[in-house]
């Protein structure tokens, strides 16, 4: 049947979002490039919002998937034991968990990040017998009701009259640009019954707030919050859905911070190939869901196990990939430094390869992204007012392509600001 681009306006819900900014009809992709139906090429600095950390159609993952399907490998297995799952778990244990001294168990949740967050919040409540979850301003955890209740970002919370209860949101580090000691504030509020903050089942946050404007917590803040969680009998949940899988420059966003979360949520790039897959890592003493207590038809996508194993073995079996990330981070930082000189009052945001620039207004950020898109770069904004131009290039982007994309962005800034 023909590809009719008017069908989107005619038949797709008004809830569609990214496609409004990027109005091409995309048909193919490879590495860090997207190709539209007219054959135009775009450099992809959105990368499925960090779901494509290893680029589009990685040749090894693609071949493994083709072989699996050609050999009648199982396509859907509920949570049955399958060979592909065993291989993924073994690779994850060998190359990710053991080298980091993590004794966590892996629980496959429904396929999206929000599913992993729901599971984490439920489990923390079950384990502690408490209801309250402490989360933070501008955090984003997903759009299902539990995850949404922990989400600070007002834009996503919407106005649908949704009942959101059981979460206290407190100021994240650097709240509104201030130097208020928010870890101290958290500690004081938890110790003071008059604050009304119920003893929490968990304290949950992203170390780099992906949707909330790339606010990056310091190692010291993360350590202090982890300590406060422990002192108050709360589980520490780190939501690594967006910052995980290398985005922060290491596999986990917290691994150089000297903390060990009780629960880690992961999705987006864990499949390696953009396939739906999410999981949570749980310390064994908290692995308290009984069989069937937190079910899901799509817990563990069998095709995703195939590609996820390749991603772990190809990129994380030794340190070479992580070393390359340092060089890419330097390239991004030098591009951003040049950009910040062109925009009065601009502030650099983020950490690792999750970087951006706060240009001060959502209108300016949108104009920059629009201009970049017209010149062949797909790039998005983030932040409470969409004021941060956000770079999420695949981690595998060749240095030359990375520089090319940054040059398009620089030109877009120059054209838009002056
Ligand atoms: N947590 C974080 C940190 C995220 O960035 C996202 C997605 N942007 C989610 C949870 C929700 O993931 P999903 O959209 O797959 O439900």
TrEMBL record:
InterPro entries: Aminotrans_3, Aminotrans_3_PPA_site, Dat, Ectoine_EctB, PyrdxlP-dep_Trfase, PyrdxlP-dep_Trfase_major, PyrdxlP-dep_Trfase_small
UniProtKB keywords: Aminotransferase, Pyridoxal phosphate, Transferase
Molecular function GO labels: diaminobutyrate-2-oxoglutarate transaminase activity; diaminobutyrate-pyruvate transaminase activity; pyridoxal phosphate binding
A Pfam family of this chain: Aminotran_3
EC number: 2.6.1.76
Gene3D superfamilies per the UniProt record, alphabetical: Aspartate Aminotransferase, domain 1 (3.90.1150.10), Type I PLP-dependent aspartate aminotransferase-like (Major domain) (3.40.640.10)
Transferase recorded as keyword: yes
Protein family membership: Belongs to the class-III pyridoxal-phosphate-dependent aminotransferase family.
Name of the protein described by the UniProt record: Diaminobutyrate--2-oxoglutarate transaminase
Organism the protein comes from: Thalassovita mangrovi
Taxon lineage: Bacteria, Pseudomonadati, Pseudomonadota, Alphaproteobacteria, Rhodobacterales
Name of the coding gene: ectB
